[in-house]
Each structure stands twice: as C-alpha cells, then as structure tokens.
Amino acid sequence: MTLRKYQRDDLRWLLQRPCAMYAADIGTGKSLVALELFKRRRKRGEVQRCLIVATPRIIEHTWPDEIAKWCPEYTHATVHGAKWRQALDTDADFYLTTYDTFKKIAGELYDDINMVVFDESHKMKGHSSQRFKQVKPFLRSFEFRLAMTGSPMPNSLEDLWAQSYVLDHGASLGAFITHFRRRYFTPHPAGFGWVPNENAQAEVFNELRGLVRRREATPEAGLPEVLHNDIMVSLPPKVYAQYKQMEDDFLLALDSGTVAAANAGGASSKCRQIANGFVY
User: Fold this and answer.
1) What would the pLDDT profile of 38-62 be if each residue is shown by its tens digit?
2) Is 169 left (phi over 0), alpha (psi -120 to 50) or beta?
3) In 3D, which of 146, 44, 132 has the Cα closest to residue 94?
C-alpha cells in the first residue's frame, strides 16, 4: 500500500503510542492508516490479530472492501448477527463486529487479539450510553487501542470525555465525568445541561494533544478545497426573538410546550430547526 506524506506522518505519530485517537476528516484515508498501523505492529511482533468495532453497515461493506483492497493477504470474519459465534471461531486476522455485539463476544475473544479499532468512536460519546458502558469493562484486554472518527465532538465539548477515557482511562480528562465537568464547565443557569467555561475548549485540546491526532481534509490530502455556501435567512421579528432566546438560554417556551436543549450543540441544532420553519 502507498501512503501519502501526511499519512506517513500520522502513522509515525500513532506508532509512538499504544492508544490514540485518529480524528481525521472523511476522505483522508483513516482506514488505510489503521490497516498499515496493524501491519507495522504485527511486523514488530506487538500484535497478532485485531478487533474492529463499528456500525453494521461499515463492518458488512466498508471494512471488508478496505481489507481486500489494501491488505489482500489478510483474512477477516464478520462477527455479527445470528452466526456471530461461528464467525468468532474462524481463524482470521481481523474480526469485525458492532458496538451492540461487542458485549456478547468480549469475554470470548482469543488472547492474541490485543488490538482494537473503534471506528466512528463518536458513537460512544455519551458517558451514560450503553455502548460506552459495554466497552468500558473490557478495555484492558486490548494493549493497543485506536479510536477513529471524523466528528470527535458532534454536539459539544462533553463528547470528548468518554472517547478519551476509552483510550487512557481518564489520564487526560479525568477518571470521572463529574470531575471533567467541574473543571471545564459551569451548570446552565436554567438547569439544563452544562456550559463550557471561557477557555475550556483550548484547555481540553491542550490536555489531549498527546492522545489525539487531528487531520483535516485539505488539498494536501488530495481533496478539493471545501466550498462554503452561506444561505442567509431573514426571520420575522417574532421568530428571530425565539431564535435568540434559544441561542442564549437553551430554552424556549411556545404555546405548544417548552423546547429545551441540553447543551450548546443541542441549542445550535434547535436554532437551525427554527431557521427552517419548525422546532421539536
């Protein structure tokens, strides 16, 4: 497989640490870098086999295609569905499974599956989500852990805590979500969610600098420049007032009921809904 210069740089960075997040935009070749990472670690004698955890569509189509394209010498088994146990008994280099199936198989994995790739790791962004809770007890079974996502914080800064915990057990952002919130957030005055402190994002990013490798889709990655198309919407005065109330207070009282956002990301989503003529 042939890597671009930025991919070689990212690979060298990832090889220097056993656990990391590769936060790379769509189209930058995350899966190619992950496969080469496994290949190099295996050549070093560090890993033997790898578990890849993702959504059903990705493990059924995307990863099999990527493995066949870039690593045809390697085999894979899709551990999902009614025949997951039979697939797990197959002798393979890669085992592909879903976040929801992970709990079933985690206690039955071969001892030499000591590398795991969490693709679309933002699926575990919620600290109270079942996906995060299912993965958490088995993390130490994998000496080498790689999280991959193009959207590390799709809703808010809080989304980073669970994903980083999966990699370093809280070394970067704290062992408990409560500690993380107390350090970087303030409770919302209306009692809905948490508001990041003034410099919270910069401080969190600084704490994660040794754990997260960010790669943006730029011309260097062989992709065309992003074209932004701003569409200006003129809102009636009443609707604009509602928009501003949601933006400022994360809360909006309507005749049909109250609309609340748990955090800044949720408020942004609600504001876009208002601009499109509806909100729920």
Assistant:
1) 999 999 999 999 999 999 989 998 9
2) left
3) 146
